[in-house]
Amino acid sequence: MQFLLAFVIVTSTILKGILCLPVKIDSETKFLVLENDDMEPTILECDYNVNDTASFLTVKWFRNDKTIYQWIRGSHPAPIPEFKNDVDSSYESSTDPNKQYSALALINPSISSTGDYKCVVQTRSETITNHKSVQVIDVRNYTLNMYRYKIQNETQLECTVTNVFPRPTITITSEDDDIVKVVANDPQQNEDGYYNATTFAAIYDDDDDLDSHKCVVTFEGYSQNLTTIITSGSCIAGTDFRILTLSFLVYFLIDYLKILV
């Protein structure tokens, strides 16, 4: 019985030590909106306090578990060759010798800068880990078009967005709440990593009043969006009516067959 009690106490102590390893998770995602080639560096701070100031201290940054930056106290940072164009290793985040080069300064951002970032601080007596998340938004070269065409008493809409990142969601809305069916295709990612997406909507229109419909493109967790509006007097700019009609009917037929299966 005494042996069992001792085993439980020792096991509990070990587990407590493991579970209490200092780990800080930043629950907020940092959104990085790409604008031009002269953007200021994006700074990710590594939050920590160390008691062991006299011994070895190193800070490592990881992106998706791959090392991209390393600093050992008392020396200049050692840039990882593969990421030397992604990080400004000369950036000093503090006058505190324990934190002088601890922050990660991201430069030349692209959609590949999106990811889960982690900084690991190590001394001879402790290890501290911070997690942060970065989501890049790139809509610098997007196109957003909305087309409207009518078949008898039904109005059909098509909204298409191209060349955006990350994965978009398209919503078509109406002031008159006359939308009777919506078919949204899964966004497709091209070879460069950008997304194209299309959503269709069917609207029951039994009057000659001027109607207005809106297409909104959103990105998860991000407050800004892309919007375009079309009215019942708008034309189908640069698009053949028969092709649009046939495309729309095909998607609705596919959706109907899925329900039957």
From TrEMBL:
InterPro entries: Ig-like_dom, Ig-like_dom_sf, Ig-like_fold, Ig_C1-set. SUPFAM superfamilies: Immunoglobulin (SSF48726). The keyword Secreted does not apply. PROSITE patterns: IG_LIKE (PS50835). It comes from the Eukaryota. Keywords: Signal. Residues 1-20 form the signal peptide. Residues 22-129 form the Ig-like domain. PANTHER family: BEAT PROTEIN (PTHR21261), GH04238P-RELATED (PTHR21261:SF2). This is Ig-like domain-containing protein. It comes from Drosophila mojavensis. The gene is Dmoj\GI18843.
